[in-house]
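Lab meeting, item 3. Inverse folding demo.
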């Protein structure tokens, strides 16, 4: 059994690692830039504001591994201020080359990380990609009239408050921009020394630098649950501690009551197989399965607004939690009774049941002493696989009834593009699922001595 558990734990680790990779691809790579959803001003926010946000949360780093280089501006002056670059009046290009503080003093990174950055790298690679959708209200250019790009003039201010301008409108490559900055008029001190030097950073091949990427950061923070919300800056662990009890208060009684009622009803109708009670039970189960779950919520809440409006939404009153619990029990009862009845009836067709009945053993004793025990494997599988929902809650029910649990948090984080919380909740679900599957396999050997875990 020890070897079986170790193998399953290894498979679980690989499964969880795969989930982490998929969530990274879906929520961070394919989803694109999410800075506009979190900075003040949204889509109209400045590129510098977006760049500052990306740098603060690590979204400006290379995606997989850091084998990239940067365009650095080194300030050789000293003073009470700091190195900064601004657009001259009428210029629009410098703002896209947002300045980001470097790890070293008196250095700033200008533009994006670029793989294989050198003098021949197009200047456009340092800037963020243009928006995919064009402004539909923008007037079309006149026929035969070439659209002139706006001037690109930067104003460089050093730590000592010395100022000079660089007109890089004709620059097309990184090398041309570097030459224009280094040779700009005014970029010299009294002794002829350069005030600011532009250069390409050296490639850092230290392991710590190579692993400084978005993917590694995603793996570490997800595995340790140290991610923070992009909206509130709360730690994921603190959010789970606050919201998980509310999901448990909803899902635990709903699952337990639904399972007990389903077992009682399914055993009852199976006992009277082929009779009127059985036919009515099957009809009611199929009818309950045909009604959409959303309909149960809509009409259940509508009825509560008619009877007791204070208990129809939210958790202002302790009794409010009973309404969604009742709705979940009623909505899931039909499918559970249908499934458990089928499992019980399948077991009653075994040879040992026919032999016991032929020897005069009462059906009641056979059903409740032997049949139910031997039916526990599929029933147990169905029950244990519901464990993740106990902790994660029900997304629809919590959102619709205003219960601030983890299910409601999942939908809120998706709508708000709170990527760390989304990734953390998906990982938590994967961990609970794998643990639930392992418990299911171990319980097989407990309920059926014929099963050996190898």
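The presenter then showed the designed sequence:
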């Amino acid at each position: 059994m020890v070897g079986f558990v170790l193998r399953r734990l290894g498979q679980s680790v690989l499964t969880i690692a795969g989930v982490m990779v998929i969530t990274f691809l879906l929520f961070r790579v394919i989803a694109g830039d999410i800075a506009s959803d979190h900075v003040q001003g949204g889509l109209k926010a400045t590129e510098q504001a977006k760049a500052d946000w990306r740098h603060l949360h690590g979204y400006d780093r290379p995606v997989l591994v850091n084998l990239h280089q940067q365009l650095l501006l080194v300030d050789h002056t000293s003073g009470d201020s700091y190195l900064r670059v601004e657009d001259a009046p009428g210029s629009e290009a410098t703002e896209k080359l947002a300045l980001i503080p470097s790890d070293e003093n008196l250095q700033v990174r200008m533009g994006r990380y670029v793989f294989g950055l050198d003098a021949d790298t197009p200047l456009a690679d340092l800037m963020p990609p243009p928006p995919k959708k064009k402004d539909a209200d923008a007037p079309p250019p006149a026929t035969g009239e070439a659209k002139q790009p706006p001037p690109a003039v930067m104003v460089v201010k050093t730590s000592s408050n010395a100022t000079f301008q660089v007109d890089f409108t004709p620059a097309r490559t990184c090398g041309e921009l570097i030459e224009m900055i280094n040779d700009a008029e005014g970029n010299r001190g009294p002794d002829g020394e350069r005030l600011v030097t532009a250069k390409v950073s050296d490639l850092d091949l230290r392991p710590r630098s190579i692993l400084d990427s978005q993917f590694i950061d995603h793996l570490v923070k997800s595995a340790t649950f140290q991610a923070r919300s992009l909206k509130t800056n709360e730690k994921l662990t603190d959010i789970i501690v606050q919201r998980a009890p509310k999901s448990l208060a909803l899902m635990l009684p709903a699952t337990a009551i639904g399972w007990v009622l389903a077992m009682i009803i399914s055993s009852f109708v199976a006992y009277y197989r082929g009779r009127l009670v059985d036919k009515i039970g099957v009809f009611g189960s199929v009818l309950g399965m045909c009604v959409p779950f959303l309909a149960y919520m809509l009409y259940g809440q509508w009825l509560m607004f008619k009877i007791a409006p204070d208990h129809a939404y939210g958790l202002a009153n302790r009794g409010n939690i009973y309404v969604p619990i009742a709705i979940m029990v009623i909505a899931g009862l039909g499918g559970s009774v249908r499934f458990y009845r089928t499992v019980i009836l399948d077991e009653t067709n075994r040879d040992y049941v026919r032999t016991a009945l032929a020897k005069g053993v009462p059906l009641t004793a056979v059903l409740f002493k032997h049949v139910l025990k031997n039916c526990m494997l599929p029933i147990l599988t169905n029950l244990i696989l519901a464990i993740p929902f106990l902790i994660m809650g029900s997304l629809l029910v919590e959102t619709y009834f205003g219960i601030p649990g983890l299910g409601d948090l999942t939908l809120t984080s998706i709508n708000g593009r709170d990527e760390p919380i989304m990734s953390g909740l998906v990982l938590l679900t994967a961990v609970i699922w794998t643990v639930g599957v392992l418990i299911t396999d171990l319980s097989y050997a407990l309920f059926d001595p014929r099963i050996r875990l190898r």
